[in-house]
Amino acid sequence: MSSRSHLAALLVAPAAFTLTVVIAARADVGAAAAQSRSSGWTLPQNAADEKSPLADSPEIVAKGKKIFESKCRHCHGATGVGNGPDADPDHPPGDLTDGRRASRNPDGVMFYKIWNGRRDPKMPAFKTDISREDVWTVIQYVKTLRR
Predict the structure, then answer these.
(1) How far is residue 100's CA from residue 111's CA, in Å, rounded to a whole number?
(2) What is the pLDDT of residue 63?
(3) Residue 108: pLDDT band by 50, 70, 90 thresholds?
(4) pLDDT tens digits for 28-63?
(5) Residues 5 and 52 in one domain
(6) Which pLDDT does position 32 carry in this prediction?
């Protein structure tokens, strides 16, 4: 191999590696976005890493329960099992008492599901109805429903 072709190979290899990394990274982002779109949820990539900024206290939980009763009970039911009077029987709301949901729906995922909602199956977006802090307050209450 001539020194010129060796030099060309050295220049092309890092560019090819960089292109491969960029393509792989975009594929990961695209897969996550596609998964969110396919389930109808709009979730940022770091949603699962976000934690509630509120301290767990009886006052926060009581406030969260009041908001839940006025905003969420109609679909999720008084006890959170998904049997509220406005629940869609063909697409019942999630059972918020199911302790296994904690791993699938950590704090940040719950936040964005409540904040952004989704079209189908229907979950109203609350970002124009309640504050971010109130969403976190509801989450603190909902976590007390888990078995």
Answers:
(1) 17
(2) 98
(3) very high
(4) 444 444 445 558 999 999 999 999 999 999 999 999
(5) no
(6) 45
Q: How many H helices and E strands in the chain? A: 6, 0
Total domain count for the chain? 2
Cα–Cα distance for residue pair 68/63, rounded to 1 Å: 9
CATH number assigned to the domain comprising residue 64: 1.10.760.10
The closest alpha carbon to 96, from 78, 81, 109, 108, belongs to 81
Computed on alpha carbons and rounded to an integer, the radius of gyration of the chain in Å comes to: 22
CB 83 within 8 A of CB 92: yes
Q: How far apart are CA 64 and CA 82, in angstroms?
A: 17
140 burial level (CB within 10 Å; 0-12, 13-18, 19+):
buried
